[in-house]
């Protein structure tokens, strides 16, 4: 009888051995993005967050383009053609730095670029995608409106025919990258019969288009958020995305972006959890580190369980996406669970740090407030619950 194989040592940073599921290329991509974030974001993010700005966003976009992080899982047109798992790992590392940085990448690649890549004409792809993949052109995605968030079918933005042109009018709200974008993918009602919602690739220097920046945010402060205003914006016939009509277009883009959030939320959770662990090992009360008390250890254990379960869930969904088998309901499953658990991990981490938890010297409160936005955008908790409820029962509770 042969001797049993020697077990590897327990790794507190990877208690389930999830790294064993990753290829050498996966690990290299993850480590590259982590190193970039440590060098270019972490030394400055507290100041950016406190000031409510993201200075040098165009330079950051070009650097992210050089890493291959923009439109990362798309193929051709200068895109990296990475796997869904590799894109997810990048999202995790970016959001471990800050949700605003991951949002920049998600909106660029999974919303604006994906819409053009999936539904655009060859001419539109050639015009926009190479420069967007390089970070030379920033994109935004206009779906949400001031009065229509969870119900995009009720949008009021309208595009009407005028000869061979389209004339676009309306407003979009809470648009990441809006005021720095060179192209806006805007969804609008048309008179093309039932379900006539169409997407338009709108150059932002077109007369009648403006994107005032939204200020006074208490979440995603290191992120550019804007309103889009279209006042009789005249577009040529070839501005419309020809590959889709109806809500299928924007909703499929949102599903692609939500997948990145499933991973990214675990990055915010990991950063907060790591801060709590380190603090618990060094902060002394009653003559010894608080990490030696049972209640603190219970918090750390529970957070570790939910954190690494969430990463396993994200990895599973990534494998399904790579196999072409990922359903929108499964993305809702991941987004609902991982963001909800991530925000709870961050809140519990804050309690471990006590009063220091609210200081920008630590990342925890910044991640808590950012995740309040992540919890809501790309589908609220309630919407994903109803998506899963319908899938489980066959009964539609939306209406």
TrEMBL record:
Annotated Acyl-CoA dehydrogenase/oxidase C-terminal domain ranges read 246-392
**Pfam families per the UniProt record, alphabetical:** Acyl-CoA_dh_1, Acyl-CoA_dh_M, Acyl-CoA_dh_N
Q: Which cofactor does it need?
A: FAD
Task: Report if keyword Flavoprotein is assigned.
Answer: yes
Q: Which residues form a coiled coil?
A: none
Looking at the record, the residues that make up the Acyl-CoA oxidase/dehydrogenase middle domain are 140-233
Q: What domain of life is recorded for the organism?
A: Bacteria
Supply the alphabetized keyword list: FAD, Flavoprotein, Oxidoreductase, Transit peptide
Q: Which residues form the Acyl-CoA dehydrogenase/oxidase N-terminal domain?
A: 23-136
> Gene3D superfamilies, from UniProt?
Acyl-CoA dehydrogenase/oxidase, N-terminal domain (1.10.540.10), Butyryl-CoA Dehydrogenase, subunit A, domain 2 (2.40.110.10), Butyryl-CoA Dehydrogenase, subunit A, domain 3 (1.20.140.10)
Which family is annotated? Belongs to the acyl-CoA dehydrogenase family.
The name this protein goes by in its record: Acyl-CoA dehydrogenase family protein
Species whose genome carries this gene: Streptomyces crystallinus
List the top taxonomic levels of the source: Bacteria, Bacillati, Actinomycetota, Actinomycetes, Kitasatosporales
């Amino acid at each position: 009888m042969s001797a049993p194989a020697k077990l590897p040592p327990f790794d507190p940073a990877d208690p389930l051995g999830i790294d064993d599921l990753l290829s050498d290329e996966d690990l290299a991509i993850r480590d590259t993005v982590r190193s970039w974030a440590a060098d270019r974001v972490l030394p400055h993010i507290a100041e950016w967050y406190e000031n409510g700005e993201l200075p040098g966003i165009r330079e950051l976009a070009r650097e992210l383009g050089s890493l291959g992080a923009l439109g990362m899982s798309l193929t051709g047109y200068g895109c990296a053609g990475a796997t869904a798992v590799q894109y997810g790992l990048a999202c995790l590392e970016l959001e471990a730095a800050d949700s605003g940085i991951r949002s920049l990448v998600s909106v660029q690649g999974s919303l604006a670029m994906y819409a053009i890549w999936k539904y655009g004409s060859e001419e539109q792809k050639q015009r926009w995608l190479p420069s967007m993949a390089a970070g030379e052109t920033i994109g935004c995605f206009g779906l949400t409106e001031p009065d229509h968030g969870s119900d995009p079918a009720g949008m009021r933005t309208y595009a009407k025919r005028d000869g061979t042109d389209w004339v676009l009018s309306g407003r979009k709200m809470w648009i990441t990258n809006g005021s720095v974008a060179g192209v806006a993918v805007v969804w609008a009602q048309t008179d093309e019969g039932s379900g006539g919602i169409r997407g338009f690739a709108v150059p932002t220097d077109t007369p009648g288009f403006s994107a005032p920046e939204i200020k006074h945010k208490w979440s995603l402060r290191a992120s550019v958020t804007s309103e889009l205003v279209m006042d009789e914006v005249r577009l040529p016939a070839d501005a419309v995305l020809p590959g889709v009509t109806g809500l299928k277009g924007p909703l499929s883009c949102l599903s692609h972006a939500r997948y990145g959030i499933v991973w990214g939320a675990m990055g915010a959770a990991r950063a907060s959890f790591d801060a709590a662990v380190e603090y618990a090992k060094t902060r002394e009360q009653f003559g010894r580190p608080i990490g030696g008390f049972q209640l603190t250890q219970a918090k750390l254990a529970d957070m570790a369980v939910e954190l690494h379960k969430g990463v396993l869930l994200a990895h599973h969904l990534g494998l399904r996406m790579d196999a072409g088998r990922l359903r929108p309901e499964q993305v809702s499953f991941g987004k609902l669970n991982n963001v909800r658990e991530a925000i709870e991990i961050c809140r519990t981490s804050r309690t471990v740090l006590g009063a220091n938890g609210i200081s920008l010297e630590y990342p925890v409160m910044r991640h808590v407030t950012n995740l309040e936005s992540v919890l809501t955008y790309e589908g609220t908790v309630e919407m994903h619950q109803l998506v899963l409820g319908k899938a489980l029962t066959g009964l539609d509770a939306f209406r």
